[in-house]
Amino acid sequence: MAPTPYSRPGVGYCTPAAQAEIAERPSAAGGASAGNTRNVTLSVNGEQHRLALEPNAILLDVLREELGLFGTKKGCDHGQCGACTVHVNGRSVNACLMLACMQEGAEITTIEGLARSAGYEQGQHPIQEAFLEHDAYQCGYCTAGQMMTAAAVLNDRAVAADAASVNDAMSGNICRCGAYKNIREAIETARQRMQGES
Question: 2Fe-2S ferredoxin-type domain: which residues (predicted)?
């Protein structure tokens, strides 16, 4: 099946040779030597960041620990909950499954840059406004990931035209508090507003 703007790539995005090489490397927590770092320039929320990273540094960890972008949450760390969802070249992905070094040349957007990246220089993205209006969060841990996935889904006109398809596309984002009713209502409100703008 062809990838969609809201698909969740995992290690399958690496070649088998790259997967084998990654598996043999020491983990980032294991203290790989500083000699293994490589200089990488990441474009995040429209800004260039020159970083010295281990080859196996995970995008989620780099966003949080190196760049201080804490809106992207570490949930399951296995690509199953969606709390770490960011956009890479406009597609929603699980940052916990992406190697940071492989994102050089890509445009990465986190929740902190969502409104600006979508052309809303002043104020918030419609999905952010709708989440506030519909109280579509409880503890808030999953909220950024829910919004990032929803924004990517709503940019896909074929999917956004059908509420059932939107619900299906959001199934990779888990809300442990169970605020799904409000989340669906918020997405529907944002969907109508975004369609009205276009």
Answer: 38-114
SS (H, E, C) the chain: CCCCCCCCCCHHHCCHHHHHHHHHCCCHHHCCCHHHCEEEEEEECCEEEEEEECCCCEHHHHHHHHCCCCCCCCCCCCCCCCCCEEEECCEEEEHHHCEHHHHCCCEEECHHHHHHHCCCCCCCCHHHHHHHHCCCCCCCCCHHHHHHHHHHHHHCHHHHCCHHHHHHHHHHCCCCCCCHHHHHHHHHHHHHHHHHHC
Global pTM exceeds 0.70: yes
Q: For 72-101, how does the pLDDT look when each residue is reduced to its tens digit (9 = 90+)? A: 999 999 999 999 999 999 999 999 999 999
Domains delineated in the chain? 11-114 (3.10.20.30), 117-197 (1.10.150.120)
Q: Which residues contact 58 (CB under 8 A, 6 or more apart)?
A: 28, 95, 96, 97, 98, 99, 100
Closest CA to 140 of 70, 91, 69, 58: 70
